[in-house]
Amino acid sequence: MLGGIFAGISFILLIILIVVITYYSRKVSQLNKKITEAQLNSQQQAQQIAQQMYQTWVNQHSQQLRQQLEQSIKQQYEAQLEMWKQQNEQMIRKDAITRSVNTLLGRIGEEFAPLLLADKYQVNPKDFRHLGSPVDYIAFKGLSDDNVDPEVIFIEVKSGKSTSLSERERKVRDAIRNGKVRYEVVSLNDLIGEVQKKINEEINKLD
Questions:
Q1: What is the rounded radius of gyration, in angstroms, for the C-alpha atoms of the chain?
Q2: Helix 113-121 vs helix 89-111: angle between axes, to the nearest 10 degrees?
Q3: Which molecular-function annotation in GO is an example for this chain (predicted)?
Q4: d(C-alpha 180, C-alpha 1), whole Å
């Protein structure tokens, strides 16, 4: 009988031992899993920190290298420019003088164009009228001379080397060449009367 009791107790102890071993095995497995996850997280964080530090270092040194390169290129360019200036100083001065003279002559031409044109077209300078747009001048040749039939001349002055006309200027030129020119006498009183008439008509419509 005692043998049966001991056998039962041994069986119970064996079951308890198996349960304890299973429990702690699971605990150990969970702990190992957490340790592994912690190690992976630590490695990932370490890699991220290392990448950030590397990128920061690259950016800093790249900027320094870029600045050094830009400074070197600038110095080389300035040295070459200075050398070119020294080699071409005489030509530069001559070109500057030429441009200044051309500018001055252009301004003189604009101011004294009627005098220059008067000699070219044999027109009394006081018979010139300046418009500016769409033509520069209108000359009434012979207007100040007695016993001479006047001639009306439309003149466009070009100060540059090119004498090409703009679209508006070509339209004016073509209209003159095609004889589309008229002389009109307008009474200002008649114009005012027409405007007053239209105003009265609009007022009457309001009644």
A1: 51
A2: 70
A3: ATP binding
A4: 147
Average pLDDT of every residue of the chain? 77
Predicted TM-score (pTM) of the model is 0.44
**pLDDT per residue over 9-53, tens digit each?**
666 766 776 766 777 677 767 777 777 777 777 777 777 777 777
DSSP code per residue over the chain: -HHHHHHHHHHHHHHHHHHHHHHHHHHHHHHHHHHHHHHHHHHHHHHHHHHHHHHHHHHHHHHHHHHHHHHHHHHHHHHHHHHHHHHTHHHHHHHHHHHHHHHHHHHHHHHSHHHHHHHHHT--GGGEEE--SS-SEEEEETTTSTT---EEEEE----SS--PPPHHHHHHHHHHHTT--------HHHHHHHHHHHHHHHHHHT-
